[in-house]
Amino acid sequence: MELTAPLVLALPKGRILDEVMPLVRAAGIEPEAAFDDPKSRALKFDTNIPGLSIIRVRAFDAATFVAFGAAHLGVVGNDVLREFDYDDLYSPLDLGIGYCRLSVALPNEMAQEIKAAGRTDSDGLSHVRVATKYPNITRQFYAEKGVQAEVVKLNGAMELAPALQLTPRIVDLVSTGGTLKANGLQEVDTLMEITSRLVVNRSAFKIRPKELSYWTDKFRDALASLSSKGA
Ligand SMILES: Nc1ncnc2c1ncn2[C@@H]1O[C@H](COP(=O)(O)OP(=O)(O)OP(=O)(O)O)[C@@H](O)[C@H]1O
Ligand SMILES: O=P(O)(O)OC[C@H]1O[C@H](OP(=O)(O)OP(=O)(O)O)[C@H](O)[C@@H]1O
């Protein structure tokens, strides 16, 4: 990584972008107009800060860009951090946005049977089939209970899996619970609580400590200032 290379901030383009941008702006970073132009196909944007650009990528890829040093800092959910477990990612700041949880869900009837019997989902099981976007977290969660998880990896619409007999169980993100309900599913266990974090590439932090500490502090101040305004 060249010392003079511009800093790159990786932002997730999906649902958390709307929650992230007030923080980015409160930290004093204003992207060029194309960033807010829905017709623009650009993926990298200059900002009002010379030497700082923004890339807009898929949520999982934001972690990858930063972990490999292609971006220097970024915003990533701790679901993604746990799933990839990249050594080179340092996450100094919980941004308190993008709250959701990662849960096991089953069809209503099966969930009700388990609850009525006062059992937990994995009681008495040695093997489960699960559809999820999070194979590593899922395998680890079941392994800790002594259960072997056979994972079917999906990238979205996990909620279809039980009704279509792909797998009886899913492990997926839940926020309002609306998607589970609309698909006849109920939560029976929670693997982790999730919020988004500011992440920094560890090597970049060693090589460019002043700049990266400056931006970490700016985000910390922006968070405090937005919280004090009740935003
Ligand atoms: N329902 C939700 N409520 C709040 N935060 C969520 C929710 N779903 C996901 N998140 C957070 O937002 C991140 C991105 O969400 P998700 O993986 O669903 O991507 P997406 O917005 O659908 O885009 P992609 O096209 O990359 O899949 C997740 O890693 C998680 O941290
Ligand atoms: O509890 P809720 O508020 O209904 O939110 C949960 C849904 O949000 C996420 O999907 P998203 O909308 O990001 O679409 P995806 O399936 O493409 O990931 C997640 O995978 C659930 O499907």
UniProtKB/TrEMBL annotation:
Keyword annotations: Amino-acid biosynthesis, ATP-binding, Cytoplasm, Glycosyltransferase, Histidine biosynthesis, Nucleotide-binding, Transferase
CDD domains: PBP2_HisGs
Chain ranges of the ATP phosphoribosyltransferase catalytic domain: 58-218
Chief location bin: cytoplasm
Protein role: Catalyzes the condensation of ATP and 5-phosphoribose 1-diphosphate to form N'-(5'-phosphoribosyl)-ATP (PR-ATP). Has a crucial role in the pathway because the rate of histidine biosynthesis seems to be controlled primarily by regulation of HisG enzymatic activity.
Family in the record: Belongs to the ATP phosphoribosyltransferase family. Short subfamily.
Descriptive protein name: ATP phosphoribosyltransferase
Organism listed in the record: Temperatibacter marinus
Lineage: Bacteria, Pseudomonadati, Pseudomonadota, Alphaproteobacteria, Kordiimonadales
